[in-house]
């Protein structure tokens, strides 16, 4: 039996310039984003400007986490207590959590076999006149047909908040993921495409929305020390009307992120070579269906998803165990028991009166996911595919 021995959660080191800059900042003590001397831009302000430029957007705010970004995005878009918010049933726990935190009521939308949101179910639910928000997760990097998503949002006057936690660096028909929505949110938590331990970004093109987000994030009326921010006049009323929900990013994390951002496109290519090696190895396995990648999508292959539609629950469990025994961490989204990063929507019991969504349940019942850290080389990826293939074949017999 083949065995794999590397860790699926080991990251690459922070680039040396990031470490050097972080050490320099620690020696200076100037870790707070507003501690820069007059006339100087802080590391955080510079990071925001660089990310705005990368996205081709005017405004960016860095903050403490992706979940915080989502929460403040909804508030900044005008969500009121009790407002309904559409979101993917297949998403990560911080998404319904952020909606709950903002005072909204999550309304889960069905999932298609390619792991994207079901646009028919979305259209049906968006037609309810009391629904004004959609938080769209590009879950595990799969981007729904954005032309149709935008059309649905336009028709039903839905405010679109994009959760691009898994699509930083990705795009749809040449436009960067996170720039389609009224607001885009990102995470720089260790297991995303940039790593600062914790962290997040909000981007928007509307100056009132981003001004509110800046004041919510705890700007202490120092919004003139932001680079990727609107004119200070935009804050005239907003500074009085918006509470401070402290959630700033600090200079240390910004210092660690800046050189990583410069490498994001290069890393996308490195991820995609690894993805292609695993995809290739799994492409001829009977009974294994790899999630399709539409032509319009420029994805970042930092993980790979597939389904085993012929497997029942007992075989799924056996499959996960066989891989684990061979050192391959396959995550299963069908487990009723929330484990690690995977929790199925029906385990979020604080969401009351949710639809049963049998289609999402059916898809997740055989949905598997493998992380692809950049610390793996192409031979590692081929070995992982061999092991998975062997285990599918063994259990299918
Ligand atoms: C990680 C993640 C978030 C939230 O990010 P944190 O920085 O961990 O709060 C939101 N949505 C998805 C899909 C994620 O994977």
Account of the protein in words:
The chain has 397 residues and is of the alpha/beta class. It folds into 2 domains: 16-262, Type I PLP-dependent aspartate aminotransferase-like (Major domain) (Aspartate Aminotransferase, domain 2), CATH 3.40.640.10; 264-396, Alpha-Beta Complex (Aspartate Aminotransferase, domain 1), CATH 3.90.1150. Helix content is 38%, strand content 14%. The chain has 13 helices and 14 strands. The strands form 3 sheets. It has a 7-stranded mixed sheet, with helices on both faces. The radius of gyration is 21 Å and the shape is globular. Residues 65-67, 91-92, 94-95, 137, 139, 163, 165-166, 187, 189, 200 line the site of pyridoxal-5'-phosphate (PLP).
- The helical percent reads 25-40%
Strand order of the largest sheet: 1-9-8-5-4-2-3
Would you tell me the overall average pLDDT?
A: 96
**Broad shape:** globular
Number of helices: 13
CATH class of the largest domain: Alpha Beta
Q: Which spans have pLDDT < 50 for at least 5 consecutive residues?
A: none
- Structural class by SSE content: alpha/beta
What summary fits the major beta sheet? 7 strands, mixed
Summarize it.
The chain has 13 helices and 14 strands.
Summarize the SSE layout with pairings.
Elements: H1 16-28, H2 43-55, E1 59-63, H3 66-76, E2 84-88, H4 94-101, E3 105-109, H5 119-126, E4 131-137, H6 146-155, E5 159-163, E6 171-172, E7 175-176, E8 183-187, E9 200-204, H7 207-216, H8 235-241, H9 251-262, H10 264-282, E10 289-290, E11 297-298, E12 303-307, H11 313-325, E13 331-332, H12 358-365, E14 367-371, H13 378-396
Parallel strand pairs: 2-3, 2-4, 4-5, 5-8
Antiparallel strand pairs: 1-9, 6-7, 6-11, 8-9, 10-12, 12-14, 13-14
Helix pairs in contact: 1-9, 2-9, 3-4, 3-7, 5-6, 10-13, 11-13
Bound molecules: pyridoxal-5'-phosphate.
């Amino acid at each position: 039996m083949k065995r794999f021995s590397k860790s699926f959660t080991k990251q690459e080191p922070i680039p040396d310039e990031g470490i050097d800059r972080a050490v320099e900042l620690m020696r200076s003590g100037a870790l707070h984003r507003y501690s820069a001397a007059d006339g100087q831009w802080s590391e955080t302000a510079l990071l925001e400007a660089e990310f705005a430029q990368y996205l081709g957007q005017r405004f960016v705010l860095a903050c403490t986490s992706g979940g915080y970004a989502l929460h403040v995005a909804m508030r900044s878009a005008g969500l009121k207590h009790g407002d309904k918010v559409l979101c993917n049933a297949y998403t990560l726990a911080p998404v319904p959590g952020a909606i709950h935190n903002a005072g909204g009521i999550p309304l889960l939308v069905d999932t298609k076999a390619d792991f994207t949101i079901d646009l028919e179910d979305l259209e049906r639910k968006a037609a309810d006149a009391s629904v004004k928000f959609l938080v769209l997760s590009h879950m595990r990097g799969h981007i729904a047909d954005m032309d149709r998503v935008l059309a649905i949002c336009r028709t039903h006057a839905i405010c679109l908040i994009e959760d691009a936690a898994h699509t930083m660096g990705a795009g749809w028909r040449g436009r960067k993921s996170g720039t389609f929505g009224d607001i885009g949110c990102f995470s720089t938590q260790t297991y995303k495409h940039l790593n600062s331990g914790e962290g997040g970004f909000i981007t928007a093109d509307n100056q009132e929305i981003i001004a509110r987000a800046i004041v919510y994030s705890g700007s202490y009326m120092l919004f003139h020390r932001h680079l990727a921010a609107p004119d200070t006049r935009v804050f005239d009323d907003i500074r009085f009307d918006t509470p401070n929900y402290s959630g700033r990013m600090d200079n240390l994390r910004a210092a660690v992120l800046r050189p990583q951002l410069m490498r994001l496109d290069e890393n996308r290519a490195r991820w995609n070579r690894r993805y292609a090696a695993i995809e290739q190895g799994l492409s001829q396995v009977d009974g294994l269906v790899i999630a399709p990648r539409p032509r319009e999508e420029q994805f970042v292959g930092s993980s790979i998803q597939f389904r085993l539609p012929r497997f029942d629950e007992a075989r799924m469990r056996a499959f996960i165990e066989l891989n684990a025994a061979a050192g391959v961490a396959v995550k299963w989204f069908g487990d009723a028991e929330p484990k690690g990063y995977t929790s199925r929507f029906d385990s979020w019991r604080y969401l009351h009166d949710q639809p049963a969504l049998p289609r999402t349940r059916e898809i997740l019942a055989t949905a598997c996911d493998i992380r692809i850290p950049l610390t793996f080389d192409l031979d590692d990826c081929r070995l992982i595919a061999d092991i998975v293939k062997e285990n599918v074949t063994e259990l299918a017999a």
